[in-house]
């Protein structure tokens, strides 16, 4: 499938060498993407909060070459990472038709994350989106006629081909990816900014990430998505995601935080229920994940505060809460939840506006 809108016309300028740089954030899905079709097309729509503090910073240095094929090296915190190369090579192969200059340069990709290395936080969304943005910025230098809107759209389109959820990291603060009847402009190909009214109670919404288990992922998301192909509950799950998207539209309009909590926690537990009921099955939550969830439920019942949790495909817990309740909830997190984290590590984040170009 070639999407002609993103295939460029012949470039106007020639560049021999240079560098571009971008910082791009992580995002946390409220309605989860789990299951995909060919060409990185999601099996259901998803919606996410863009984060502010958890980011990848990437510098892309390029130099003209005459040899054939792709040529690149990757560094994380200044150390060469040959194990990242297969994933990036696959990314380049998928996007070459949209960026024909890819074989004309040797690239040096230098990247670092603001969150602790191997914290169990997925760096693929921030990492792939940062790389996609650098590549589109280089393309813009070869062909200056590109509106900001198209720049972001192409970056999201390319990022998706690197890692699905990466297409939701270009802009903020609320991003929809995947076609949904009741969200105008929604698309399987790119993430778009949520186009409707959002109640002010969601302004500066907070996400404290509790690092329960910083180990390697037990199951890659590629394997996880594939397990949905023959999952006995797949169709019901995909239908449920659409229903939850509709319910969230109403929540964002009215600011009904109790309904928000119920949808978001159900989505998180459904994601894990899908993993626990696939063949083969996986259990990615740890005892401390459950300790934290139970304590959140008890605290919420006792105080009436609007604290809730969501999970990624791992044991870490994202604790979500509105800004006006942040003082009490942050105190509770520090005194009662942080003890369940590995080395008591956690990250305080809030909603962010998306990626930014870095001047170098
Ligand atoms: O982008 P991927 O292929 O790593 O998949 C991410 C899937 C989840 O993080 C579990 C859910 C989501 O929508 O982000």
Give an overview in words.
- It is built from 8 helices and 14 strands.
- By secondary structure, it is an alpha+beta fold.
- The chain folds into 2 domains: 4-196 and 353-357, 2-Layer Sandwich (Ribosomal Protein S5, domain 2), CATH 3.30.230.10; 200-350, GHMP kinase, C-terminal domain (Alpha-Beta Plaits, 2-Layer Sandwich), CATH 3.30.70.
- The strands form 3 sheets. Strands 1, 4, 5, 6, 7, 8, 9 and 14 form an 8-stranded mixed β-sheet that branches. The chain has a 4-stranded antiparallel β-sheet with strand order 11-12-10-13. A two-stranded antiparallel sheet has the order 2-3.
- A hairpin with a 5-residue loop joins strand 11 and strand 12.
- The chain is globular, with a radius of gyration of 20 Å.
Features:
360 residues, alpha+beta, Ribosomal Protein S5, domain 2, four-stranded antiparallel beta sheet, 8 helices, 14 strands, globular, binds (3R)-3-hydroxy-3-methyl-5-(phosphonooxy)pentanoic acid
Task: Give a concise summary.
This protein has 360 residues and is an alpha+beta fold.
Protein structure class:
alpha+beta
Main β sheet profile:
8 strands, mixed
**Low-confidence parts:** none
Kindly state the percentage of residues in helix. 25-40%
Number of domains: 2
Shape: globular
Strand content: 15-25%
Topology:
Layout: E1 17-31, E2 36-37, E3 41-42, E4 46-64, E5 71-76, E6 79-80, H1 85-95, E7 105-113, H2 124-142, H3 148-162, E8 174-177, E9 191-193, E10 206-210, H4 221-227, H5 234-254, H6 257-276, H7 287-303, E11 308-311, E12 317-321, H8 326-337, E13 346-350, E14 356-357
Helix pairs in contact: 2-3, 5-6
Bound molecules: (3R)-3-hydroxy-3-methyl-5-(phosphonooxy)pentanoic acid (PMV).
């Amino acid at each position: 499938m070639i999407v002609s809108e993103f295939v460029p016309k012949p470039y106007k300028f020639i560049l021999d060498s240079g560098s571009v740089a971008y910082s791009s954030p992580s995002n946390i899905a409220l309605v989860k993407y789990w299951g995909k079709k060919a060409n990185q097309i999601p099996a259901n729509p998803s919606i996410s909060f863009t984060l502010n503090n958890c980011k990848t910073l990437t510098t892309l240095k390029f130099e003209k070459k005459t040899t054939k094929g792709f040529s690149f090296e990757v560094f994380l915190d200044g150390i060469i990472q040959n194990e990242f190369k297969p994933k990036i090579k696959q990314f380049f192969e998928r996007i070459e038709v949209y960026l024909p200059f890819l074989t004309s340069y040797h690239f040096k990709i230098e990247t670092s994350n603001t969150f602790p290395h191997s914290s169990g936080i997925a760096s693929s969304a921030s990492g792939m989106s940062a790389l996609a943005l650098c590549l589109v910025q280089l393309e813009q230098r070869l062909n200056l006629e590109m509106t900001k809107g198209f720049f972001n759209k192409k970056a999201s389109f390319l990022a998706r081909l690197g890692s699905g959820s990466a297409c939701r990291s270009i802009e903020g603060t609320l991003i929809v990816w995947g076609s949904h009847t009741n969200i105008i402009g929604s698309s399987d190909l790119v993430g778009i900014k949520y186009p409707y009214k959002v109640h002010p109670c969601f302004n500066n919404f907070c996400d404290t990430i509790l690092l329960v288990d910083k180990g390697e992922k037990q199951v890659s998301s590629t394997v996880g998505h594939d397990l949905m192909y023959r999952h006995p509950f797949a169709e019901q799950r995909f239908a449920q995601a659409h229903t939850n998207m509709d319910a969230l539209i109403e929540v964002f309009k009215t600011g009904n935080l109790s309904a928000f909590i119920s949808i978001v926690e159900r989505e998180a537990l459904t994601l894990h229920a899908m993993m626990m009921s696939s063949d083969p099955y996986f259990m990615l939550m740890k005892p401390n994940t459950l300790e934290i969830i139970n304590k959140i439920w008890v605290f919420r019942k006792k105080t009436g505060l609007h604290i809730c949790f969501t999970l990624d495909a791992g044991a870490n817990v994202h604790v979500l809460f509105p800004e006006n309740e942040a003082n009490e909830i942050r105190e509770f997190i520090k005194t009662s939840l942080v003890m369940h984290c590995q080395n008591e590590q956690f990250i305080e984040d809030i909603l962010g506006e998306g990626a930014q170009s870095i001047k170098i």
